[in-house]
What we know:
The complex is a heterodimer. Chain A is mainly alpha-helical. Chain A has one domain (24-112): Cytochrome Bc1 Complex, Chain D, domain 2, CATH 1.10.760.10. Chain A has helices at residues 3-21, 25-37, 61-64, 69-78, 98-112. In chain A, helix 2 (25-37) crosses helix 5 (98-112) and helix 4 crosses helix 5 (98-112). The model of chain A is unreliable at 13-20 (pLDDT under 50). Helices cover 43% and strands 4% of the residues of chain B. Chain B has helices at residues 3-22, 26-34, 48-53, 68-76, 114-125, 131-134, 148-156, 180-183, 186-194, 196-199, 212-225, and strands at residues 92-93, 100-101, 164-166, 169-170. Chain B folds into two domains: 16-129, Cytochrome Bc1 Complex, Chain D, domain 2 (Orthogonal Bundle), CATH 1.10.760; 130-232, Cytochrome c-like domain (Cytochrome Bc1 Complex, Chain D, domain 2, Orthogonal Bundle), CATH 1.10.760. In chain B, strand 1 (92-93) and strand 2 (100-101) form a beta hairpin. Chain B is mostly helical. Classes of the chains: A mainly alpha, B mainly alpha. At the A-B interface, helix 2 of A face helix 3, strand 2, helix 7 and strand 4 of B.
Amino acid sequence: MNKYLLSMTLTSLLLLPAISQAETAADNYKTYCMQCHGMQGNGMGANIQDMSVQPRDHTDAKTMSGRTDAELFKVIKEGGLAINKSALMPPWDSTFTDNEIHDLVKYLRKLCKCKHAG
Amino acid sequence: MANYLLIPLLLLTLSALSPAMAAADGSNILQQQCASCHNLTGPAATKLASLWQRKGPDLFYAGNKYNQTWVEVWLQQPGRIRPTGMFYMDHIKAGPKRDMVDQSTLSEHMKLDAADARAVAKALATMKANSALIKDEKHDPDMAPGPLGEMMFDKIYGCMACHQIEPGYGGITGPEIYTAGKRLTPEFMLSYIRSPQAWDPKIWMPNKHVPDTNRQKLVNYIVELSKENFNE
Lengths: 118, 232
C-alpha cells in the first residue's frame, strides 16, 4: 500500500465515528416531528385525532413566513408555551444539540419553501 | 467408540438435560427465544439508525422497570401495548384526515406456557441495570391529583398527545398509558418522566421538565387509571 492510500485510510477511520454520530435534520424530523406534524409535514400526523390544538402545517408558506428563524429555534428548543402557544408542542432541549436545532430550522424553511417575510 | 469415552459422554448429556426437565430455566429461554428481538445486555441505542432497527423493547433493565406479576401474566396472554409498533414510521400510512396505523404490518407476540412465563418473569426480575437512575426516586402515593389528573396529563403537560388514556382515546406513538400502572413500577415511571433520555437517549418522548410534585401526581394518576376496568 502506498503512503497516500495509507494516510487516507487512517484519516477516514478517524473520521468515521464522528460522522456516524451526527444526525441529519431529515432523520431528526422523521423520528421526532412526523408523529404529530405528519409524514408530509402538513400537520396530519398519526397522533392528532384527540389533540385539542392541531399541529402547524409546516408546508404552509403563508404562516411559516410569518415566523423568524429565531422564533422557530425558540419554539423547537423550549416548546409551544415559550412562545405563548400550546403545550402540546413539546420542548426538545433534552433531545437535540443547538446545532441540530439550527439544522431543523433550515429544514423547515425547505418544507415551506419560504423565508421570513421581514 | 471405546467404553471409557462413552460413559463420561452419557453422564454429561444427562446432567445437561435433567435440570431443564425439572424446571424451566428462565435465562436459557431468554437467550434462546428472546435475544433475537430484545436487547438483554445493553446499552440502549445511541444512534437513530439503531433505534429504528430495534425489534422489541430493551429488557436489560427489566428488573427495575416491570412488575414481575404483570410480566408473568402478559407472557401467557400478550396483548398490544404500542399501537404503532416499535418504530412508528414503519407502521403508518397516509390517510385522508391523518396518518393511520397500517395494521397489516403489526404482528402478534409469541406466547409462553405458565411454567416458562413464570421462570422468565423471575429471570427478568434479576436484570437490574440502571439502578442508579431509580435509587433516589421516592414514590408518594398520597400526592393524588384527584379529578385534575386527566387535565394535567392532557392539557397542561400534553402527554396525551402520544399516549392513550383509554382504548382508542389519545395519541398512538407512545405505549398505551391506561395499563402502565399495572405494568411498571412507580419508581421507574417517576424516573422515566424525569428524563426519558437517561433510559433511552434517542427515544421520541420529550423531556417535559415536570416539577417533582407534579411528577408524583402524574404517576398517581397513571396508577389510578390502571385500576379502571376497560373491557377490551
